[in-house]
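Protocol step 4 of 6: structure prediction from sequence.
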Amino acid sequence: MPVVGLVFAVLAALIHVYIFVLESLRWTAPKTRAIFGTSEDEALATRQLAFNQGFYNLFLAVMVVVGAAVDIASDATVGRTLVAAGASCMVLAGLVLLLSDRTKVRSALVQLVAPAIALGAWGIGALV
């Protein structure tokens, strides 16, 4: 995988770790509520859902980081498969957010741009 692809894949993973922290650890905090546009009552009512969703984001991040490490250290096929699977899920989840709630364009782009660039760089690298 080209270096640019790996850099953007790891950046995507870091973004998803940050999302995990917000959703699973800081969901009811005022700053987190402001980021997600939720009231205190909404945050309390959706705390369990957000906690679970945050772990999905963490697991995607771990998949991408492990894939990048394996790609660099030992087995490009296994590493690239893990990165591609994790990054693809990140992009698709961002698209679902974008298509399901047009007011969340910024959040969707934060979620999907870095992994999309990683996948694009990988695709271009495969052609060269």
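Step 5 (inspection) to follow. The mean pLDDT is 94.
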